[in-house]
Amino acid sequence: MGENTAVSTLMAATVQIVLLFAITLLMLLLTLVPALLEWYAKTDAEPLRVVREQDTSIRHFATSFRTQVNTFFDDHGIELDDPPGSFNAVWHIDEPVSFLGAAPAPDFSPDEIKARRINRVLIGTSSMFLPGDMVYEEEVYCCGDLTTGDRTAYRALYAEREISLGNESVVVRWLHAGGGVAVGAGSRLFGRLSADQSVTLGAECEFERISSPVIRFAPDNVSPRHLDERVTLESWNPEQALQSIDCDTLKAPAALTIPDHVRVDKHVIAKHALSYGAGVEVAGDTKAGKSLRIGRGAVIRGSLVCGGLIEIGADCRIKGPVISELGIRIGTGCVIGTPAQPTTVSAPEIAVASGAQVSGTVWAGASGRVGT
Amino acid sequence: MSVHRQRFARGLITRFALVLGSLALAFYGGAVVFAAVVSADKAAAAPQASLFAPKIVLGTIIVILALFMLRHLIFTLNRLFGHQRHPYLDVDVADWPRLAVLIPAHNEEAVIANALGALVDVDYPADRLRIIPIDDRSEDRTWEIISRFQRDFPHLIHPLQREAGGEGKAAVIRFATEQVDEDIVILFDADYVPGRGLLKQLAAPFFDPEVGAVMGRVVPQNTGTNLLTRLLDLERAGGYQVDQQARMNLQLVPQYGGSVGGARVRALQQVGGWREDALAEDTDLTYRLLLHGYKTVYENRSECYEEVPENWQERNRQIMRWAKGHNQAAFRYAWSLMRTPHVSLIERLDGLLLLGVYAVAPLLLVGWVCALLLYFNGEQTLASVGVVTFLFVSFGAMGNFAAFFEIAAALHLDGSGNRVRLLPLNFFNFLVSLVNITRACFGLIFVDYLLDRDVRWAKTRRYRR
After folding, report:
1. What is the distance between the alpha carbons of residues B117 and B129, in angstroms, rounded to a whole number?
2. Chain-chain contact of B230 with A243 (C-beta, under 8 angstroms)
3. Residue B243: CB atoms within 10 Å
4. Of A136, B27, B189, B191, which residue is 20 to 30 A from B213 by alpha carbon distance?
5. How many domains does the structure of chain B reveal?
6. B414 shares a domain with B338
């Protein structure tokens, strides 16, 4: 009896130990069940998608839309030299389209005029006028010049030649013109605006991203300025203790001020604030950690990069990109980039004074406006 | 400006994390003091074998790991809620600098055509671009493929053939860099397939004269091959999407990674070029640039595919090489980093922690040994407190390149789906790495340095067929 009891006690102990390990293992495995199922089923095992053809071009949406218009012309046998009369059709994904032919203006129904809202794509083969005080909820395409009335909102506009937007217009997504674009005063341009020849923004316009060989900001408000004939400037020899990270670069461990009318032949880096005096000429690139102020009439042949605000005085000439992590204020009469050598102005907030001109791209991440 | 206000609000979250982290650190510090006091009391009351040393070692390790955990926590919160810095990304037109793209290739017949095919299709101005594949004594069809591309694109492809000289990527890059007269060199591994706009994205930061190097994001292409590749995919996501970008956001020390990146030739010459004796030439260069006043920029949206190891032997070799190379850089630059006038205090601290990232693994093992020693020598209460704290902080610090919560945050930011479920299995990957990194650390100290043995570079195997 005693032996049996001992054996059964031993067995019970063994079973308990085995159970303890089994239950512990089971508990551990339970926590791993989702992982093990995913390992087995491979429901999310594809490589992270890297878009090789990623097109950051400002014209991306305009180009896609233009391709769709071409497809529409092909599908309906439309010859631009001899277009048919107007008709209504259905765009892909069931959007209504009105083909206007060579009509100079769309024909709106009484309901549309009453609601002041057009919710169909408009496609015209000649120059076109869009009446004002309306909302165009879908894209508009025009083979010739496109002129619009005041106080009107658009989703997107594409014209093969010129576009002239009335005052206080709103473009929600994008706008592209094969020629020039003139935007009326007080307009708001969200998204992308591009033109193959030039863009002229009226006073008090707001914008996000603009690209064109020539971008003029409210040129009518300011009479053209002519820079004084440049004189030979003396090379600047710094008296302050500067670290020199190489023979081409000057680095200031704190703030740095460069006096008026001197020439700096190197790259300049300042850890904190950096100020260029009036008429300074800088051959290299510039970096300021906190803020960067450029005096009137300065000539910068390199780039301007700053962690804080960049303030560019009147009548400056800048060749390289202007990049700020906070904001850029461009003074009146400034010229940034040239049509032959366009460049980029990029910051969360950009304010451009009347009479300034940029060649290339102006990209305001949060808001851009004409006027300081 | 409204941007000011947004950044202030975001900054509040980071500050909250800092306060939280500081409190956590104070708690761990308290544990160390507690351990020391208890140890001193007991040693005075009963003069048995003193456990003072393991307690202090354990406490110190806890504090170090807590620092790493705090760092990872701040990085993660910054990526989830903080202001994201991509200052150079919007540069799309400019007078672009002259670029030389270097592609070291040793027996790369399986992959080199894809890389070259992608590179000749990029949108960088052709008159500013020179693509230089460097055939380093290949024994397969690598040179034949390169020559075919040279015939088809003679204006772009300017290959080099290397018949002699030292082994290793740094030696090959050094050889090629000496022969370029461009402003910038961009480096790709032969298995990388760059997108059309990638070169512009990598070149744009060099408009900033303070930038010495730039690094893009590497994305595993062979993710679905097996469990290892899937785990490495998680690790890479955390390392790049959260860790590197957070360091960029906080203006700390993003790390140049050797590929999908580039360097300013003028800066390279200033710091002495590529070091052939560096096992991790990327880490080595990051610190040499930093010590000379140049910054490294990370571009999270400049993505490029790579292959990750598909078997554990290859993975172990790779991580041991990284660990040795990284620790080699730590020995070389930690002291200089503490003394240089070029970097801010916060950069200095982050730079030191980054240098110490491969010391975490051996520290963890030593910590575990100390905890066990205390437990089995009658210090159950102290050991339990210590072990729990230790496990808590080590969980936050573990992961060689990314803590696990960093990986989870990265997958969220990437919009990934169910792959986050694999995260618990990464613990096993971590254990394997722990052992290998420790082997590498001890090997570097006790074998390579004491026996004055040369550290050897090992090429990572390609799997594409």
Report:
1. 15
2. no
3. 28
4. B191
5. 2
6. no
